[in-house]
Amino acid sequence: VSLAAAALLGTLVLGNVAGAFSTNLQYDGLFNWEIKARIFLVEGGIPGSYFHDESRRFSHPEYPWLVPLNEAWLYLLSGEAKPIVAKALFPGFHASLLFLIHGHVTRRVSRPLGLLAAVLVGGVPALASEATTGYADVPLALFWTGSVLYLLEWRATGSRRAALLAALLAALAAWTKREGLVLAAMQGTALGLAPWLLGRRAGARLLGECALAGLVVVGPWLALLAFHRPAGTDFVPVTVASTLERAERIPALLGQ
């Protein structure tokens, strides 16, 4: 059974690689992420004017940069800016997610169940499809899943390393996609229990270390956004006024 599961896992990974290089980047993959990689490459960085350039507003300057920065790095290594080069990233994210799940379940339960868990996740059609589009959802899933798994490991073992990895991966999720900020806040809330679980002094120290680790990753990006204040096109700014204007929607949302 283990051999068959391992063979199936390898087939899923290789199939995803083949699928990625035989299809084109989809709309968001091109115009939200890959276009930023080209700007990085052409401009030698992101000029401040980009955040307020109306002609480039469609590319969402307020979106995080983890994916396009990695794409730009691949362009620099390859010497050419072709979308097929950027697509090399995404099978790697997909495979990393599967091996992450395999490793954690193997350590906590058994190798056969680790292989089975990885195969089941790898066989989800939506996940396999997203890993070929150039969208940021698969890297977001990788970092968020890793953060949750290491958070559970911290709760089970008290490992400081696991808590720090949970914080770092949550910060990477926040730097991957805007939804990642919400997920990172959830992880921060869970890690905030440390002073009650470990004692005030030890827990406060661990919480501070996790906060610092997360800020090192995502802090510069948040500072850049605060400095340039790009106008987003997806969401209304969260203010007291905007919340009160839409307060009548809250009962309907809670009732769903």
Short account of what is shown:
With 256 residues, the chain is mainly α.
Radius of gyration: 20 Å
What is the residue-mean pLDDT, rounded to a whole number? 84
The helix content, as a percent range, equals over 70%
- Give the biggest sheet: none
Class by SSE composition? mainly alpha
Shape designation: globular
Give the count of helical stretches.
14
Strand content: under 5%
Task: Show unreliable segments.
Answer: none
- The count of DSSP E runs of length 2 or more, i.e. the number of strands, is 0
Q: What is the N-to-C order of secondary-structure elements (H for helix, E for strand)?
A: HHHHHHHHHHHHHH
Quote the distance from N terminus to C terminus: 42 Å
Any key phrases for this structure?
about 260 residues, mainly alpha, 14 helices, globular
Write structural notes for this entry.
Helices cover 73% and strands 0% of the residues. Helix 1 (2-21) packs antiparallel against helix 5 and helix 8 runs antiparallel to helix 9. It is mainly alpha-helical and 256 residues long. The mean pLDDT is 84. The relative contact order is 0.11. The N and C termini lie far apart (42 Å). The chain is globular, with a radius of gyration of 20 Å. The chain has helices at residues 2-21, 27-43, 66-78, 83-86, 89-108, 111-122, 125-130, 137-157, 160-174, 179-191, 194-198, 200-228, 240-245, 250-254.
